[in-house]
């Protein structure tokens, strides 16, 4: 990840002037113990499956990643030139900890791993993502997910 002081002045100015929206807060909801939870991953790493279209500038959609997808078939299409992909290239779990969730389910630490996981483009204005986020919430509900591991990138 690039530091602000490493960016050219015009890029620093752009980053400093990005809007920071505020949202109404929602109280935390109680749920079953972790050992009974069905967990899905939602990341902003710009991940896509091999053969899918890459995310573009300002993309407000998401990609669906089935739980059984081989790590070699998950590509990072994040558009930010300032993002260091080295960790992802070494281990997909850095941004998409699917193997850790499988281990936790096997050890009984969580109830189960969701059938599907989701990736957004992190370099998108958050206000543009609301419609996709609401649609995704419905899909998570259909999959009986009651815990989400957020992996912001």
Mean pLDDT: 88
Could you say which structural class the secondary elements and strand pairing correspond to? alpha/beta
What does the radius of gyration come to? 17 Å
The fraction of residues in strands falls at 15-25%
Order of helices and strands, N to C? HEEEEHHEEHE
List the helices and strands and how they pair.
Layout: H1 9-16, E1 38-43, E2 47-49, E3 62-66, E4 74-76, H2 86-90, H3 98-106, E5 112-113, E6 116-120, H4 130-142, E7 147-151
Parallel strand pairs: 1-5, 1-6, 1-7
Antiparallel strand pairs: 2-4, 3-6
Molecular structure report:
It contains 4 helices and 7 strands; from the N terminus they run αββββααββαβ. The mean pLDDT is 88. Strands 1, 3, 5, 6 and 7 form a 5-stranded mixed β-sheet that branches. A two-stranded antiparallel sheet has the order 2-4. The protein has helices spanning 9-16, 86-90, 98-106, 130-142, and strands spanning 38-43, 47-49, 62-66, 74-76, 112-113, 116-120, 147-151. It has one domain (35-151). The protein has 153 residues and is an alpha/beta fold.
Kindly summarize this structure in a few lines.
The protein is of the alpha/beta class and 153 residues long. It has one domain (35-151). The protein has four helices and seven strands.
List its salient traits.
single chain; about 150 residues; alpha/beta; five-stranded mixed sheet; two-stranded antiparallel sheet; 4 helices; globular
């Amino acid at each position: 990840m690039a530091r602000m002081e490493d960016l050219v002045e015009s890029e620093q100015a752009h980053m400093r002037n990005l809007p920071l929206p505020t949202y109404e807060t929602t109280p935390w909801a109680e749920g079953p113990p972790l050992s009974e939870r069905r967990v899905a991953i939602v990341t902003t790493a710009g991940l896509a499956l091999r053969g899918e279209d890459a995310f573009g500038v300002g993309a407000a959609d998401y990609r669906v990643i089935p739980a059984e997808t081989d790590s070699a078939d998950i590509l990072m299409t994040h558009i930010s030139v300032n993002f260091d992909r080295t960790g992802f290239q070494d281990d997909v779990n850095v941004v998409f900890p699917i193997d850790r969730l499988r281990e936790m389910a096997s050890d009984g630490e969580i109830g189960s791993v969701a059938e599907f996981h989701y990736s957004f483009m992190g370099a998108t204005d958050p206000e543009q993502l609301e419609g996709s986020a609401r649609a995704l919430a419905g899909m998570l509900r259909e999959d009986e997910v009651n815990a989400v591991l957020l992996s912001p990138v």
